[in-house]
Write a structure and sequence with these properties.
Number of helices: 3
Distance between the termini: 16 Å
Strand content: under 5%
Length: 89
């Protein structure tokens, strides 16, 4: 993400933009993840389990079809990302 994406837009009726918000540093993100790992892991597994349960129901328990769908989706997303990057991956 470019640094300009972190800049806030000027508020309505104001000529100047509010102060820039700096993106979090990788060390800060790592520290937050380490300090809250059980909470993040719980949320991740909860999300994944819900998705797997929904997909299992949709495909009448055939998780091979879920894996196939995920693989096709990943290839499609990879191509879209490469196209967005001008063909570079």
């Amino acid at each position: 993400m470019s640094s300009s994406a972190w800049a806030a837009a000027p508020a309505a009726g104001h000529d100047t933009a509010p102060p820039r918000i700096s993106p979090p540093r990788s060390a800060e993100v790592e520290r937050a993840l380490r300090q809250n790992y059980p909470r993040f892991q719980y949320c991740f597994v909860d999300f994944l389990a819900e998705q797997l349960a929904d997909m299992s129901r949709s495909f009448q328990g055939d998780l091979q079809m879920v894996v196939l769908l995920a693989t096709v989706g990943q290839v499609s997303l990879s191509a879209a990302i490469a196209a967005e990057a001008g063909g570079r991956s």
